[in-house]
Amino acid sequence: MREDCFPLKPCGGCDYAMKTDVTITDERMVLTCTGVTKTYRTRGKQISVLRGIDLAIPKGTLTVITGNSGTGKTTLLSIAGGLDRPDTGRIAFMGNPMESLTARESALLRRGRIGFIFQNFNLIDSWTAIENAEAGLIHLRVTADEKRRLATDLLAGLGLAGRLDSFPDELSVGEEQRVAIARTLAARPSLVLADEPTGSVDDETGAEIIRRLMAHTREHGGSVIVATHGPFPLGTADAVFRLAEGVLLPL
Length: 251
Ligand SMILES: Nc1ncnc2c1ncn2[C@@H]1O[C@H](COP(=O)(O)OP(=O)(O)OP(=O)(O)O)[C@@H](O)[C@H]1O
Ligand SMILES: [Mg+2]
What we know:
single chain, 251 residues, alpha/beta, Rossmann fold, 4-stranded antiparallel β-sheet, 6 helices, globular, binds magnesium ion
């Protein structure tokens, strides 16, 4: 096996994610995780959340990670996106092994290229919906008018045309979630990590959110990883995995 070979076993459930020939420098992949482990140690207790995660995410695809509450989905997304470090294992983003980068190099690589839709939204309370959505465009070299147009279009597409000037505490939870989604998709990142993106909305709004995430992969060639413990129309995904007892299994 070559040094950078991706040590996964072939699997019948999907045609790429478990192939043995994927390497961390494979140009088809936006992200690879190999042998990722993570244990939390708090107040004398140890929780081994991730026990050896192998995952390869091809460009322009939507991958869903399901699993019961507390199985480590948020932990995995945080590590995959470089917000947290694994105890062992390797993460490569666009062919760059993250462990070989300094914190600053890693931040520069991820800036504008990895977008998070956080489970708790992380909106800025003192900014309106449109200002929060525009925050996603901060790294884009376009005029202020163009930023406003892009953010307005995205919010309108998510049913929020009448809420542009509302502050987060004037929005419902589902509306806040949609602002967070608009903020992330506006920048057209190469990789979107979406933590329970349909967790707080009705079925119809959820379907619209999924349509937007799909469009991001189909029209812009971005990749999306969705983590969810709730219902998600799994048929829309290119690959589905279940996280249980610290390992990922294809569904
Ligand atoms: N910073 C932390 N310190 C200690 N334990 C943690 C920490 N973050 C998460 N955990 C624990 O790790 C486990 C996995 O948490 P995580 O948030 O990744 O689960 P999850 O699958 O996203 O759950 P949910 O579906 O409810 O969002 C849980 O048992 C949680 O209590
Ligand atoms: Mg979670």
